[in-house]
Each structure stands twice: as C-alpha cells, then as structure tokens.
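Handoff note, outgoing to incoming analyst
You'll be picking up this chain. Sequence as last confirmed:
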Amino acid sequence: MKQHKKQEAPGLPDLPRALQKWEYKVMLFTADLERHLDELGEKGWELVAIEQREITREGAAPPATWTVFKRPVY
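Most recent structure output, in case you need it:
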C-alpha cells in the first residue's frame, strides 16, 4: 500500500500533529464573501465550516453566511 506524504504549506515548520495548536475565528458575512475568503486566506486562515442562513428582523431576511476559520499557532 502506497503512503502519501501530507503536503505542508510553504514556510511552515514541520511539527508533529500532536504539537500543533490552532487558533479559531467565527465570522458572519452578509456581502462580499469571496473577497473576505481571499483576504483571510492570504493571512493564513483556512475555512473549515460554512453555513448560509437568513436573518429575520422585523420581516427583512438578508442572506447571511456563518463561517469558521482556523490557522496554526506556534
């Protein structure tokens, strides 16, 4: 059976999985989701969960996207 080596992001130290710590961020977006994803990705944030819901306030229901991001902490 062939084993695949995990590809690491350039510039990150090669740490054992048990030693790796993560920082998390939960964000709500109502517009420009792609732009925000690109900006956060450039800062090292990785998207791990996404859910779209409608927020209802006094009859209005704008679309809103909840996101969860993580990035390694050293």
